[in-house]
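== Sequence and structure of one protein ==
=== Format: two labelled lines per protein ===
==== Data for this protein ====
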Amino acid sequence: MRTVLGPDSLLVEENVIPGEFFNRLIQRYPKQRSFKQALISIAFSSAYLEALLHIVGYRRLGPREYETIDKGTYRQKLASLGVKDVVLLDGSDRLRRSRKELLHEKAVKEALSKKVEIRNAQDEARFAVDFVRKVEDFIRKKEPPKNAD
């Protein structure tokens, strides 16, 4: 066996059975900080996106119209704010799914009974942060200029 670079830059031996690899991983990182930090990134990216959409939605659509979509999905809110970019809309679905699956225990139980896509929390965290930045950039480009009174 030779040592190779594994997930998250861990040195692992080739041809190690998966259970053995994960046992070593847990022994090497007993507090699992990388996973915890990934969950925190996903949770706060989602919270920031929700707040951003709320503020911009109220400003652009007005309170009455925004209230009608306030409980909707990220996709519905983005579409209501004029987002037509399919990549952004699909990204909003990915963020919603990964947030639900990674952060809600009930979703995990439901997923175990179905065929589910395996996700890497660190990859999903990187995606969440990048996605929120793209939405923010899009919204800034669409914002009308401030009056210089």
Observations:
- The mean pLDDT is 76.
